[in-house]
Amino acid sequence: MQARSQVLDRVLVLEMVRVTEAAAIAASALVGRGDEKAADAAAVEAMRAALNELYMDGTVVIGEGERDEAPMLFIGEKVGSAPGKGPRIDIALDPLEGTTITAKAGPNALAVLAIAEEGCLLNAPDVYMDKIAVGPGYPPGVIDLEKSPTENVAAVAAAKGVKPSDIIACVLDRPRHEKLIAELRACGCGIMLIDDGDVAGVIATTDPDTTIDIYLGQGGAPEGVLAAAALRCAGGQFQGRLLFRNEDERSRARKWGITDLDKIYDLSELARGDCIFAATGVTDGSLLEGVKRRGKVMTTESVVMRASSGTVRWVKGEHRID
To answer: Which residues of the chain have pLDDT under 50?
Structure first.
């Protein structure tokens, strides 16, 4: 079991839920309104305000982009009420994972956050990442990015004692995944296509009720770090490899300290040491219920996990409206 961090003990687990709740509630006012930017801005502002109430010396290492691209919660921004005094914490966040989902009132929009001690979260640039993930219960090394999707599905099926046709894969519904989808169907694998929200897609592999066995495909690298932090807490395996479309993206990676551009990262390299992951549903999904308003009460559903204890807590919240 991962050693418990005394630094993270000073930032209470449930305080992380309060942060994601604030972002989810703010974004929920824009569900179905067709305005992605407004929904994202509301979530960002609320999450930043909640983070700044916590006693910590926090640094955003995965955020809304670089400083010249984002007005707040940008990479490198300092948050917390005790700069230079409180525990030094690295933060990976996505105040609204699924902006398009929220604008269209679709499923699985989340407010997500992961924290770890300083230097324990990969400072991933905003590029694509090739990802593969499974939940807990499999032998080490059951998945391998160096192998084909067909080989990975066969390995997972063998470990479960079933046929490849009994495996369900989760894949983002994108044109870039046309060949991947064709190969998976050719080997008989079932596919659950999702419109957005690959953090939720990866986490779904840990919950048997979702029926998802494996996650495959390309998505955002920052979301890969968040998903890896969740799997460190809930159990599972994950591999990711950064993908670069041009020299500008390679330069940005080097700027953030990444020297081996072809490296395949596993869980322990994306999110090291003790870490805490929290998520609150914005819209209803396979993982969490979305924000509901009933008269003068708003309800939320959240999950918060910790790597050192392996604890997963499901939190129902009621928030009274003045």
So the answer is: none
